[in-house]
Write a structure and sequence with these properties.
- The protein is mainly beta.
- It has strands spanning 4-7, 10-13, 22-25, 29-34, 37-38, 40-45, 51-58, 61-62, 64-69, 75-82, 85-86, 88-93, 99-106, 109-117, 123-127.
- The protein is flat.
- The model has no long low-confidence stretch (mean pLDDT 92).
Length: 129
């Protein structure tokens, strides 16, 4: 990524005027660009080599399932993104694997009531955030 620069929402190789197309892979990331836009699967890793997150871009916007993990490989959160907007169920977990919160987004806005849990699984709060 150090060889790319962003101008007007598009990515270019340094010192060029042609939008970048190709893959960027290093120790902690795997990313793809097409015509200067983020495209396809994007994967990130923690410094210890464990998967940190995976998401998909379409036409420069997040689109599809987005999943994050703790360094211990435990699921951290999972949600869906449609056309760059949060859309669908969002769930987050404590590092110990216990459910922390869940709720729904529609077109980027929180919808309905969300539920928050303590580390022991009891309900802490129920309602709008």
């Amino acid at each position: 990524m150090d060889d790319l620069v962003e101008r007007d929402g598009l990515y270019y190789k340094k010192f060029t005027d042609v939008p970048f197309t190709g893959d960027i892979t290093d120790k902690t990331t795997q990313r793809t660009f097409r015509n200067g836009e983020k495209e396809g699967p994007w994967v990130e890793y923690h410094d210890n080599g464990q998967l940190s997150s995976k998401a998909t871009y379409k036409d420069g916007e997040f689109d599809g399932l987005w999943v994050e993990y703790y360094e211990n490989e435990q699921l951290r959160s999972k949600t869906n993104i449609k056309n760059g907007e949060l859309d669908g169920l969002w769930v987050s977990y404590y590092k110990n694997g216990q459910l922390w919160k869940k709720g729904t987004y529609k077109d980027g806005e929180k919808e309905d009531d969300w539920v928050y849990y303590s580390r022991d699984g009891s309900v802490l709060e129920y309602g709008e955030d």
